[in-house]
Specification:
By secondary structure, the protein is α+β, with helices and mostly antiparallel strands. 39% of the residues lie in helices and 12% in strands. It starts with a helix and ends in a 20-residue tail after the last strand.
Length: 339
């Protein structure tokens, strides 16, 4: 009886899942782009759906079939549609459900390709630190990496990396050097934070972010923007940069999308659950950013619409509602110095 029960949903699913839709969207891509229109990077629209439509009943029934599939059946079906087969069972189910949902909704109504960010900028700072992380210690940014993800090609398109000279604690602790791999000689020869920030902004401008192309910032947790960048701007006596006031916290997005608790959203655990290994040196800002970008790309492939979910307001960390309009970050500008 058990064998009969397992085979039955598989057969029904073969009928339920259509072959990939071809014209404008490729399977695994988050959205399609209409080449006749240009995205301004200011406000983006997000379409609403009528959930009374019969297509949603079809999707719900198929989700039930998918829930009863074994891991081997899930991998077989994913392979049939040329989708990624790595990951734990819950991830595979989510991947297949989103693929089917996307195909059904595309048949109902073509997706507007200009409704999502063109790029995502992944940032993971490294900062000065001491063993035990004493509460009175002031963290200063010593590595500023940016990894540019193209949401149309779903590839890392470019990277930026600069080290930063700390002001308050110019001598790195042995713990910090061991953890990050950043040596005293590296930071001694580095530029100050305002100089590095100016280079970051120029790099972003050269890629026409916020002007020709819409984009969003993305971090692994809240601390990079709400703590490290916030504190660093005060140390360097500059205003908080407007382009970094809103961002995607991928830990929140991952937890909500794959329905996992917060303690399963650390970088190494997210990679493991998605069937991936860490590439590079842990606690290298650039390597961490690249691995976070790999998670973001996999989530986009799995059908997740990564959206801004956190922001800074009056120096405080705030949550952004998932129902808020999709809005790209502004064109980057060097912030003014504080009085």
């Amino acid at each position: 009886m058990e064998e009969h029960k397992e085979n039955r949903p598989q057969a029904t699913l073969n009928e339920a899942l259509p072959p990939p839709a071809t014209p404008a969207c490729l399977p695994g891509k988050q959205h399609c782009r209409n080449n006749d229109q240009e995205t301004t990077g200011k406000k983006l629209t997000s379409s609403s759906s009528d959930f009374s439509d019969p297509v949603y009943k079809e999707i719900a029934i198929t989700n039930g079939y998918i829930n009863r599939m074994s891991r081997d059946e899930l991998r077989s079906k994913l392979a049939e549609f040329k989708l990624e087969t790595r990951g734990v069972k819950d991830v595979l189910k989510k991947r297949l459900k989103n693929y089917y949902k996307k195909q059904k909704l595309m048949q109902k109504e073509p997706i507007n390709g200009d409704s999502y960010y063109d790029y995502i900028c992944v940032v993971d700072f490294e900062a000065t630190c001491e063993e035990g992380n004493p509460p009175e210690f002031v963290h200063e940014i010593i590595e500023f990496p940016v990894v540019l993800v193209n949401t149309h090609t779903l590839e890392i398109e470019d990277t930026f990396q600069q080290y930063v000279k700390p002001e308050i604690n110019p001598k790195l602790s042995a713990f910090c050097i061991s953890l990050t791999g950043i040596t005293q000689d590296i930071v001694d020869k580095a530029d100050t934070f305002p100089q590095v920030l100016q280079k970051v902004i120029e790099w972003m401008r050269q890629r026409e972010l916020g002007t020709k192309y819409s984009y969003s910032m993305l971090t692994d947790g809240s601390w990079d923007m709400s703590k490290f960048l916030n504190i660093q701007c005060r140390i360097s006596r500059i205003k908080y940069p407007s382009f970094a006031k809103r961002w995607i916290n991928i830990r929140k997005s991952y937890g909500n999308f794959y329905k996992v608790p917060r303690n399963q959203t650390k970088l190494t655990i997210m990679l493991e659950k998605l069937g991936m290994n860490y590439d590079g040196r842990p606690h290298s800002g650039l390597d961490d950013s690249k691995n976070i970008a790999r998670i973001a790309i996999r989530m986009l492939q799995d059908g997740c619409e990564l959206r801004v979910n956190e922001r800074m307001h009056a120096g405080q960390l705030m949550t952004v509602s998932s129902s808020a309009p999709l809005e790209g970050a502004p064109a980057p500008q060097m912030p003014r110095f504080r009085n």
